[in-house]
């Protein structure tokens, strides 16, 4: 599964950017889908059940393809990945979306490239060129500057939760990408999900609503999306892309995620997307090109 790829004729760096871009496209629907889901599901239950569904599918995939168990050294990083992207980020964003709109929360995703790059240096041993950091910091500053201009005091709890979500997610991305070089991209997320299964499965059963009859079809579809695509399929492309093209470099593609996410928020949730949001998003796209050029 890991060796066969329609991108096999391309060099590793190019494959990394293509796989990373596909991952970003998939992740772009996560916050709008989560926003829809938390309107009818408890955010804690949503976090647990999406991880449980993805973990069962991941375990099935590992069994079908007869994957070997991780080594003793690999279990520690897998726990970090699980705490960061399986539990931490979904839970914190679900809680945040009780206070802020998905359009507002998407703005904070612009900080993920910087967080991922920082942890890529700390955990992955990468050393981007100094100019790279200029573009990365500039893109993140534009995103945060816009958020501050909108008035963070309007929902301080939501904004704080989003900032914490970005930090734990950046750590999970970097740790998983480093691990995927030896374990494999899709294997990393599947094993990280399996690590969480003994916790998320019983808790999801305990916290499950007593009655599901009032849950609408859009909420069920949103749950299906965040469980299947956001929690599993997106990471297959994302971790492979980070490992192939570099954590810091490919991680800058996340600056594009607000652009796609805002479009979805406007189209699916009918949330207002201001001109300022669009201008900030378009501006940071230019930072991706600059960061890519000086990443190595």
UniProtKB/TrEMBL annotation:
Domain of life, per lineage: Bacteria
Topology term for the membrane: Multi-pass membrane protein
Annotated GO CC locations: membrane
Residue span, EamA domain: 17-139, 158-287
A Pfam family recorded for this sequence: EamA
Signal peptide boundaries: none
Residues annotated as transmembrane: 20-38, 44-65, 77-97, 103-122, 131-149, 155-174, 186-207, 219-239, 246-267, 273-291
Cellular localisation: Membrane
Sorted UniProt keywords: Membrane, Transmembrane, Transmembrane helix
Family: Belongs to the EamA transporter family.
Protein name: DMT family transporter
Organism: Pseudomonas lactucae
């Amino acid at each position: 599964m890991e060796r066969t790829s329609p991108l096999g004729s391309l060099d590793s760096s190019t494959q990394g950017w293509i796989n990373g871009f596909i991952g970003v496209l998939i992740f772009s629907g996560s916050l709008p889908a989560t926003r829809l889901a938390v309107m009818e599901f408890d955010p804690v239950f949503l976090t647990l059940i999406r991880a449980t569904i993805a973990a069962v599918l991941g375990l099935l995939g590992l069994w079908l393809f007869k994957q070997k168990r991780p080594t003793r050294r690999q279990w520690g990083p897998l726990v970090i990945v699980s705490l960061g992207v399986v539990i931490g980020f979904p839970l914190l964003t679900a809680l945040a979306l009780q206070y802020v709109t998905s359009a507002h929360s998407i703005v904070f995703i612009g900080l993920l490239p910087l967080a991922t790059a920082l942890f890529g240096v700390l955990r992955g041993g990468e050393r981007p060129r100094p100019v790279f950091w200029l573009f990365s910091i500039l893109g993140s500053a534009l995103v945060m500057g816009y958020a501050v201009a909108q008035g963070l005091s309007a929902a301080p709890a939501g904004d704080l939760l989003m900032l914490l979500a970005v930090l734990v997610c950046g750590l999970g991305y970097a740790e998983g990408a480093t691990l995927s070089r030896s374990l494999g991209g899709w294997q990393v997320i599947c094993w990280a999900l399996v690590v969480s299964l003994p916790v998320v499965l019983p808790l999801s059963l305990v916290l499950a609503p007593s009655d599901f009859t009032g849950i609408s079809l859009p909420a069920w579809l949103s749950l299906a999306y965040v469980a299947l695509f956001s929690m599993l399929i997106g990471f297959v492309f994302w971790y492979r892309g980070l490992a192939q093209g570099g954590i810091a470099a490919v991680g800058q593609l996340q600056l594009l995620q607000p652009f796609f996410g805002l479009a979805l928020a406007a189209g699916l949730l009918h949330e207002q997307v201001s001109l300022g949001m669009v201008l900030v998003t378009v501006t940071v796209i230019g930072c991706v090109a600059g960061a890519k050029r000086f990443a190595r």
